[in-house]
Amino acid sequence: MFVDRAKIFIRSGKGGNGAVSFRREPFVPEGGPDGGDGGKGGDVIFEADENMRTLMDFRYKRKYEAENGQDGMKKKRYGKNGEDLIIKVPVGTVVIDEESGLVMKDLKKHGESFVAAKGGKGGKGNTKYATSTRQAPNFAEAGGFAKERNVILEMKLIADVGLVGFPNVGKSTLLSVSTSAKPKIANYHFTTIDPNLGVVKIYDTSFVMADIAGIIEGASEGAGLGHRFLKHIERTKVLIHVVDVSGSEGRDPKEDFDKINKELEQYSEKLLKKPQIVAANKIDLIGEDSEEYQDFKAYVEEQGYEVFPMSAPINQGVQEVLAAAADKLQQVLAEPQEEDDYELFDFEKDENDPDYRTVTVSYDGNSFVLHGKQLLKIFNSTNFTDFGSLRYLYKYIEKSGAIDQMKEMGIEDGDIIKIEDFEFEYYDEDYFED
Question: Considering only CA atoms, which of 28, 32, 128, 136 is closest in space to residue 72?
Fold first, then answer.
């Protein structure tokens, strides 16, 4: 099964906590601090792999977590860094941050990669907090938080030439006679549900050709599987527009031609601007000298397109169509390639969260609840049996403005302040003042 869209949850590794430790050696009864730093948490990395063809694996596993950093140890030993998690995806996969809807990365080449979630930094051991006036710090820094997010993986086929047209006009047949691909072919609509790829070898060159499922009216607005099919045409450089010129199913070839181009234009004007070759298929049923074909040819040529008569099942005119496609492709490749117009995810803003140091206060009816990312990190680093560590926590809360906020909200002595699941009583006194 061809799966071209998936949503997964990713989480980087948490940073290891710094260690609180003191030298304990013979004849050194009051050894100094020797707690080592914690290790960095592992990153979550996406990497494009040309050996993958589908996002099927992500239907069965939706949660991916990198390894946490190891806590610091005594004797100034650092904790081991968490192992990075590398998630391999097919070439042509667009990674999107679900919350913002912005593109994090468009992985177009084999081996291309990027970090989607950075691991938390390792916390400092108590060795780093020793000063001339604080020679035995009894606290250390907690490891940095893990980064977690939901991401959407959207695969767009990377093919040089795309086959477009109504269902059952002969696209799959053309692919099968031009390449070694073996698409499912039958005389009913929507035979092709999943795109098929094949390599065309002609003269001294080759190119990848994709059979895109038949487009119907309203596809650009999402009718049927319209958006799913049309997005696979976006990366193609040349289009072969296959039309049943015989009208064997009771449709007008000129109307079919116009309707397909209208759907391409409504989905994206860029699609209609791509070089397009028109393959008038099933010509064997009416002949090249017929009034129907000559009328269709004149109509299409008036709009600036080349028309090639073809009968894919008997391989009539196929080489001419492929040669024209190869020639158009070489012309396109010789020109500067236009980049996809995406609104990109801001990694710098994500890394430097402006709200990281903000402390907010709320009242739940029983206690004043404090929230804040840096507050929580300092709180997790606090040794509640050490005066210096407690004082550092209090001073941070005070400097953040949270004490003033709570006073404005009417806090009184004996009221409860809550951080996470920990509660303590408030007293308006200078206990922590210098």
Answer: 128
Do the annotations mark residue 268 as ligand-binding?
no
Partners of 22 in the β-ladder:
33
Q: Does 81 appear as a known binding residue?
A: no
Same-domain status, 178 and 251: yes
Annotated binding residue at 270? no
404 labelled ligand-binding: no
- pLDDT tens-digit series, residues 85-136: 999 999 889 999 999 999 999 998 999 999 999 999 999 999 998 887 778 8
CB 47 within 8 A of CB 113: yes
Whether residue 196 is annotated as binding a ligand: the answer is no
Residue 282 assigned to a binding site: yes
Q: What is the CATH number of the domain that holds 51?
A: 2.70.210.12
Choose the final residue of a domain: 140, 155, 170. Answer: 155
Q: Whose structure tokens read 């020639």?
A: 327
Looking at the structure, tell me whether residues 131 and 268 fall in a common domain: no
192 marked as binding residue: yes
- 298 is an annotated ligand-binding site residue: no
Range of the domain at 219: 161-333
pLDDT digits (tens, 9 = 90+) for 200-225: 998 888 898 988 765 555 444 444 44
